[in-house]
Amino acid sequence: MTSFMNADFLLKTETAKKLYHEHAEKMPIIDYHCHINPQEIYEDKRYNPITEFERVNGSFDGEQTLTMLIGDCALAFERLPLEQDLDLLRNILYSGVWTKWISAKQRNQPNRRNDPND
After folding, report:
1. CB 8 within 8 A of CB 17
2. Integer distance in angstroms from the first to the last C-alpha of the chain?
3. Model-level pTM?
4. Could you give phi then psi for residue 97, rounded to 5 degrees?
5. Rounded to an integer, what is the distance from CA 91 to the centroid of its chain?
């Protein structure tokens, strides 16, 4: 029996497998609706959407956006056919992200008293 998500995941026909593995697999994923500089696409520049949003707009409501993103991640995660290390993965997804966020937020506000109820 093959694994659920092998190299041919979603490739149903031999033609699809041939086209993907001989051509598309090596090509970059490009979002043609974005406004990324073509030179940066060519250079395969990596983006952090959070810092990029803050750079362009001058501010970022991280908590609201992170809540939305984690919600989307949680929905997708719970649909995965996982059987191993579920408690660990849920801890990272549901608690670890917020622990890291609060820690970073406190580091960036050195004049504030560290209040555990914040």
Report:
1. yes
2. 50
3. 0.41
4. -65, -45
5. 17
